[in-house]
User: What shape does this take?
Amino acid sequence: MRLQKYMADCGIASRRKCEEYIEQGLVTVNGEVALLGMSIDPDTDRVEYDGEVLKKDRNSEKVVIMLNKPRGVVSSCSDPQGRRTTADYFRDLPYRLYNVGRLDIDTEGLLLFTNDGDFAYKVMHPSFEIHKTYRALIDGELTHEQAERLRHGVMLDDGMTSPAAVEGISVGENDTSFYIRIHEGRNRQVRRMIDAIGHKTLRLRRVAVGQLKLYGLHTGEWRFLTREEIDGILNGK
Ligand code: URA
Assistant: This one.
């Protein structure tokens, strides 16, 4: 079995992230620094990451959790500045969970956690085209032309964005709110798209991942997903 697949099965991170850990020399197999591309035998090889020997059976029950992340909470395991992190919500659970993607500190809403590396990989990798829907509140009026620019794709410093769906536009006196649906997951992508068309983001909340909606969870609340909900995200049902 490929080393990165084994690591993902043990709940370390997505396969892609595990490849990075291997490349960075953070993983050993039987005491030797592992090389990218190597295969291991889970029954006989001893794999260590971050000073811990990996065990597959420890996380044999795969779970996916949905959190309604509040603004001001950092999407990571720890924060050098001592701010509240998403991992703080799950300290008492017997799972080694990690974020399925991230929301920036100012963004609220639907964030998933899992110990299933394959699930995380599929949700995060743009090739699976699992859409993420946000409700954005921006300053001023979003014009028809600006909405079209978002739909078409805008040029950011890391390249052109894929076409986005922009719907439910509601123009207020001094601001506009609308839904924007994208399937890429670049850093602060929605905020940067809104910057690129000349507006400021006043509030950003992720309201859906694939078919899964945030309904029913107050800010700071979380719950386990059902098998149907997990399959629904992956199969687009
Ligand atoms: N786009 C952003 O700007 N921030 C997020 O957290 C997610 C998408």
Observations:
- The longest helix spans residues 15-23.
- The chain has a mean pLDDT of 91.
- The chain has six helices and 15 strands.
- The pocket of uracil is lined by residues 103-104, 107, 188-191, 204 (CB under 6 Å).
